[in-house]
Amino acid sequence: MAADQKSPHDLPDVAGLSVAVLGGTGDQGRGLARRFAMAGHRVVIGSRSAERAETAAAEVGQGLGAGADISGADNAAAARQGDLVVVAVPWDGHRALLESLADALADKIVIDCVNPLGFDKKGAFALDVPEGSAAQQAEAVLPRSRVVAAFHHVSAVVLLDPEVDRVDLDVLVLGDDRDATDTVRALAARISGVRGIYGGRLRNAHQVEALTANIISVNRRYKAHAGIRITDV
Amino acid sequence: MAADQKSPHDLPDVAGLSVAVLGGTGDQGRGLARRFAMAGHRVVIGSRSAERAETAAAEVGQGLGAGADISGADNAAAARQGDLVVVAVPWDGHRALLESLADALADKIVIDCVNPLGFDKKGAFALDVPEGSAAQQAEAVLPRSRVVAAFHHVSAVVLLDPEVDRVDLDVLVLGDDRDATDTVRALAARISGVRGIYGGRLRNAHQVEALTANIISVNRRYKAHAGIRITDV
């Protein structure tokens, strides 16, 4: 293999990068924050209220021992502090939050894991998004950031469970910037058991977000916390 | 467990059912026909031209030995002969074919595995479908049939490869009729290595069809024939 031919499995070293999790007081946000802190990252939980973020950070940090570096801040301060910024807010507030943080997020890798879903008596279903997907909305609102879509299918219950050492799923990582998707694939792989698999361009993010509705259906039928693995990779 | 409480893993016996594969001369159709014939099903390959269907059936049957029962017919005759009918036509001809076969397909389980995709220089992408998905279009056109969506992500290359004894993937099976989805889950499980996993209602079929674009991206990046497995199920 020529030196300039990169293996699709090569990962950059992201161990020294800090991670901010916006909307980090929700289940998915706390779950991801917990796993990144377990992996040794400096983690900042962001929330509208700095106080609630600090409370969540203290709670998540409690189970992790003295080495864990996890703090709370309002979303704007968290966005400034993170080398990588995960967006884990409810879909309702997605656009408004990102618009308000466009300056703080400039030049950063922004990792969108938001699933625009509705719920009715029949279960979950995908919502229409004018931009195509939450990730594409983020890209439209944050033209100076490098937007990557990832972490859609991780079960918050599993991430938060202290009995689970190894998380049995692959994270599909989508984006149009190879370095950014490689960085996020490496971040995913910091969670024990997880692989970060390149899953296509951002224009194909809708179905990955929407597939969460199917995974919810699987969970109901099988009483599971399902995830997906990609075979032959 | 009470006798009327069904395990989500229970499967009906489908060994005696015949399978028609409409559009069965294409790669995916031939691949599925081959695997169902290997499992001992009577298989009828359907095509616009009975002659081309017979040629494809002979070709697929060649590698399978004397026990295989695989024949060809025009699509209408194939639709009448199959206990279960798989729709594997190109998206272009999907609506017109099903409209023409509405009578032949009445009261049958129709298994739609069509992926409405477009392709350009950047790869594959999901097409907009007025009904939401190919499967929902089938449901709209075939009100007297029981439409199930399944087999979207199976690699034709793998299905057709005589060296592959065990196919390493799960088939997501979607539909609103429990008996029909259970039957199709059982059919999927007739392929060695495959599980049929309930994946939600038909209204959530779009993203399962569209995810094929992501799998094509995975295949390009990793030089793989990727599939998906569902974890914790």
Automatic annotation (TrEMBL), chains A, B:
Highest taxon of the lineage = Bacteria
Which InterPro entries does its entry note? NAD(P)-bd_dom_sf (IPR036291), NpdG (IPR010185), P5C_Rdtase_cat_N (IPR028939), STEAP_metalloreductase (IPR051267)
- Organism, per UniProt? Murinocardiopsis flavida
Please identify the protein, giving its name as recorded: Pyrroline-5-carboxylate reductase catalytic N-terminal domain-containing protein
A molecular function GO annotation: oxidoreductase activity, acting on NAD(P)H
A Pfam family cross-referenced in the UniProt record is F420_oxidored
Organism phylogeny = Bacteria, Bacillati, Actinomycetota, Actinomycetes, Streptosporangiales
Note the Gene3D superfamilies from the entry: NAD(P)-binding Rossmann-like Domain
SUPFAM superfamilies reported for this sequence: NAD(P)-binding Rossmann-fold domains
Q: Quick one: a GO biological-process term for this protein?
A: copper ion import
Domain Pyrroline-5-carboxylate reductase catalytic N-terminal residue range list: 19-116
Single GO cellular component term: plasma membrane
Q: Any idea which UniProt keywords this protein has?
A: Oxidoreductase
